[in-house]
Amino acid sequence: MSMLAGKTALVTGAGRGIGRGIALALAKAGAKVVVNDLGVSLSGEGTDKQPAAQLADEIVKEGGSAAANFGSVAEPDDASAMVRQVVDTWGRLDILVHVAGILRDRMIFNMTDTEWDAVLDVHLKGAFNTNRAASVAMREQKTGRIVNMSSVSALGAPGQPNYAAAKAGILGLTWSTSNAMAKYGVTANAILPSGATRMIDSTPRGREFFEQTGKWPSEAAAGTERDPDNVAPLVVFLASDAAAGVTGQAFHSFGYGYTLMAQPQAVRRLEADRRLTPEELVKLFPTTLGSALQPPPGTNFGKTLGTRPEAEWNDLGGGVRFWQSAREER
Q1: Is 184 known to be catalytic?
Q2: Which of 163, 184, 256, 258 is catalytic?
Q3: pLDDT tens-digit map of 152-178
Q4: Which residues lie closer than 8 Å to 317 by C-beta, 6 or more apart?
Q5: Which of 150, 214, 290, 294 is the most exposed place for a label (fewest CB within 10 A)?
Q6: Run of H or E residues at 119
Q7: Helices and strands per DSSP (H, E), number in the chain
C-alpha cells in the first residue's frame, strides 16, 4: 500500500518549484491533492491559472486524484475556501503544506512599507491563514499533519529583511501550532528548503550563472543536489503516519540530505543576588556573555557539514551516512 493512501492534502504555491515537487510526491505516495497557486510573478503581481491547472491535470493523467485552486493565501476567506474545497471534495483534510511565497528584496534602509507588507502577507499571514483554517478541520478529526516552509534567510539574509522576518515568524508560528495541536493528534513542523528555484534565478548570482552557462540555475539543477524536488521526500515522511511522534521540529533540506536544527537553547547566563548596574555590565560582559560572540549564521547555514572529519560520520550503508553534533544536549 502507498505511504499516504487514503490521505488528502492541500499544498499552497504548488504550481512551480518546490511546491510542485511536493504536490507530485504526495500524489505519488497516494494522497489526493488540492493544488493551490495564484500564479503570480516572483514579486506577487498578476495572476495565472495555468500552473495550478496544469499540475492538477498532470496528477490525474498519471492516475492520481487532484483539483486546482487559484486562491490567495494572503486572504483569510480564500485560505478557508482552500481547506473547505479539500473537505467538500474528499471528506477530510489530512495534510497541509504551506509553500506559497514571493520576493521583494531590498536592503533595510531602502525597503518601502509596500515591499514589507506584500512579503509578510503571503509568507507569514498566509501561513497563519492556512494553518488556522486547517487546524479547525484537523482538531475535529483528532489527526493531521502541517508542514510550513521557512528559510535559511530567517537566519540573517542581509538583503531580505521582509523575507527573513516572515520566515522567522513561520518558525514561531509552527512551534506555537505544534504545542497547541499536540493533544488533538496534529503535528506541525517546519522545513528550511534549499534548491535552485526561479527565486534563485532572479538573484544577481542566478543571472551571472545564466550569462556564463546559457541556462538558469533552476534549469541546470534538475537531477542534481540543487534540485528543488529533493525537499519532497522529507515532506512525504512528515505527512505520513510514520511521523506521528515528530512535531515542533525545524529541518534544513540541503543537497541529498536533511539537517535537524537545534531548538533555541540557553548557552550562557550572568546573574547576581540583586539588580546589576550598567557599570557592572561594562566590566563583566566582555568575559562572560560577550566572549567570542558569533554573528548570525545567514544563508550559509549547514552547508559546511559535509566537510566535517570522516571520523565524525557514521556509515549507515547503501550510500547513507549520519553526523551528530557532539554538543547536542540530551
Answers
A1: no
A2: 163
A3: 999 999 999 999 999 999 999 999 999
A4: none
A5: 294
A6: helix 113-120
A7: 11, 10
